[in-house]
């Protein structure tokens, strides 16, 4: 077996099914644009997708497209086109890659699924729970296509979620209904919303169980696997297909656990990853950790699609709670306590913080958290400087060296 093969991730067989699901998701969107129905709503990845499904929209997620631009390494090429029309290289590189690709008339969806262009929005719906960039991102397309832009403004940087946060957000969601009715041509039906919230709840429970498999020793999946297999939780949440898929994946992972099948052969160290993935370098990083017999078994990022609060009995309030309880919405004290819990449950030996240049919202290393957590938990910590999409902000050589030194530190700690 060649060296390259030895460092490849072990195939998860459910991936074949996931690829089919993603293909049919995009084909359905393309068909809808051809036929003019159903209408297409663009939604932020942790936005109120349930409401849009319940109103009869097909839902498209530009962040998924941003990640695809990153993973296919097209992003760095297109970002300058967005910079040229005034979007700073310092803002979200999902935004700049996506807008740049649009301006160039290119999308990775063509090669992957045969779409000529991204499915144009009939309406754009954002939630600022993650950042303000999404509002500005969607505003670009609202101007471009002259379609409605609506959204909700979530309280951010909060420690405890209060009833007034929830009441406010639930009202904001309800206030969107008249515009959604007008664009979709459908009347709002609370029972449909309850059904969709119930489907999202089921999906999120299964996704949590998938991620919790990482607590097994050896772990049956890696962070790099999870960044791929989270796709249905992001783009098919609220639909039955996502539930069927996670049942299939979970079965496979449980079989791996029962048979002690390690995702990383000879697993020696177990790490926690905080921050965005570096989409264009997933493969290289995965291979390096595989070689070092180190598995990143848990992450704040993949946990972002666990929404424990969904409750069909209280659809608006529970959506408001689910989308406010998120890690990214919370203050540092909450984030540290949250991470600590996962770190203990997953028997973590060290923490990696990714400081993504263009995403301060999902970079938690800028206000002393790595130092505080390292000291409190007695764990080695590494901060990687990079970016989710803009590879000009990432030094492969430097990162490789830093990771090697970090693993040596873990080795030394173990031998003490
Ligand atoms: S959270 Fe970060 S990566 Fe996501 S849209 Fe906002 S700025 Fe971009």
From TrEMBL:
Record keywords, A-Z: Iron, Iron-sulfur, Metal-binding
Pfam families per the UniProt record, alphabetical: HGD-D (PF06050)
Gene Ontology MF, one: metal ion binding
InterPro entries: FldB/FldC_alpha/beta
Family listed: Belongs to the FldB/FldC dehydratase alpha/beta subunit family.
Designated name of the protein: 2-hydroxyacyl-CoA dehydratase
Species: Desulfomonile tiedjei
Phylogenetic classification of the source organism: Bacteria, Pseudomonadati, Thermodesulfobacteriota, Desulfomonilia, Desulfomonilales
